[in-house]
Design brief:
The chain has about 100 residues and is mainly alpha-helical. It is about 60% helix and about 5% strand.
Amino acid sequence: MKKSLITHDQIFNLIAKELKENRNEGLWLECEIKSKGDEFTTKKIYTQIRYEQLAEKYSVESSVNDDTEYARNSRENFLKELAEDKRKGDELEDGHEFKIKDDK
């Protein structure tokens, strides 16, 4: 069976929609455990796992020469948007400053 083609951006759009509308609660719980309850880290882990799952399910279309660099940059931009949403939204209950951790 031939896999459908999908772009990196389409994968991230699917994940963003999934996070807002119908996330996999079992996977979310697993990510919460791994992140020790930190919501940003939970979203980050969830996004990484779902990206891998969807990339495996579909054939990722390459629009640039270096897929790895493009995927990393897309993921970083997505995570920065999540961090910005967090800054605009809920204040951290424990008073800690919210920062983006560079995991290169």
